[in-house]
Design brief:
mainly beta; four-stranded antiparallel beta sheet
């Protein structure tokens, strides 16, 4: 099983970026796909998650209203559209997967760096 995250880069405050996470190696129906982030010197933070089958979503308070998680089942890809970026969004972003009904994310991508300049 592999999760391949991409799309990070440099953006200005107020700008946008879209992250992608391509999942391979198994079917992810029955899984929730999540995005997390970790800034230097800080703990990992939940950003958003989506139910692979139903499409239902949840967001962390710090990104609610600015970020949108979505998935393309045909492409086995989960996206994180990030709008109205702030310098405090600077972090390494990771995608992850956990089975519905469990609390532990068992599959993790390698991370992609997002840097937002003021």
């Amino acid at each position: 099983v592999q999760l391949q995250a991409s799309g990070g880069g440099l953006a200005q405050a107020g700008g946008s970026l879209r992250l992608s996470c391509v999942a391979s190696g198994r079917t992810f129906s029955g899984y929730k796909m999540g995005w997390f982030r970790q800034a230097p010197g800080k703990e990992r933070e939940f950003v958003a998650r989506i139910d692979w089958s139903s499409g239902s979503t949840n967001y962390g308070d710090s990104v609610k209203g600015r970020f949108t998680i979505s998935r393309d089942n045909a492409k086995n890809t989960v996206y994180l559209q990030m709008d109205s970026l702030k310098p405090e969004d600077t972090a390494v972003y990771y995608c992850a997967a956990r089975k519905i009904g469990t609390s532990k994310y068992v599959y993790w991508g390698q991370g992609t760096l997002v840097t937002v300049s003021s």
